[in-house]
Design a protein that fits this description.
The protein is 15% helix and 50% strand. The protein is mostly beta strands. It is globular.
Length: 121
């Protein structure tokens, strides 16, 4: 092996750094449109995502947000029980509430689709 091949192989074996999330789960409630004091709008919702059988916990309830107008409009048509897939990135958001700085970890959704509608209520 040449020196160049060794460097390339070592570089290829290094772990990639990424913040990509894909979730498939059930919508737990009606998505909410939130208007921030800045005038920005977002939609918030939660997904119930099953865990593996060995975890001891059955599901995770994952908070999600969508900022893009087209995504917001689509997500606002979802209802509790819909099975959906979302993709995006993990975000840690800081905000002021009750005179204190708080943080929240959520999935910032960049794409979303319904895979199965829940029966009409």
């Amino acid at each position: 092996m040449t020196k160049t091949q060794t460097k390339t192989q070592t570089k290829d074996m290094e772990p990639a750094v990424a913040n990509d999330v894909r979730l498939a789960g059930k919508v737990t409630g009606t998505p909410l449109l939130v208007e921030l004091p800045s005038g920005d709008a977002l939609v918030t919702f939660r997904l119930s995502v099953p865990r593996g059988v060995d975890s001891g916990q059955r599901v995770d309830s994952v908070p999600c947000t969508a900022w893009a107008p087209r995504l917001r409009r689509g997500i606002l048509t979802w209802r509790a029980g819909d099975l959906v897939e979302v993709a995006g990135a993990v975000r840690c958001r800081f905000y002021q509430a009750g005179g204190a700085t708080r943080s929240r970890v959520e999935v910032e959704v960049t794409s979303a689709r319904i895979t199965r509608r829940s029966p009409a209520a």
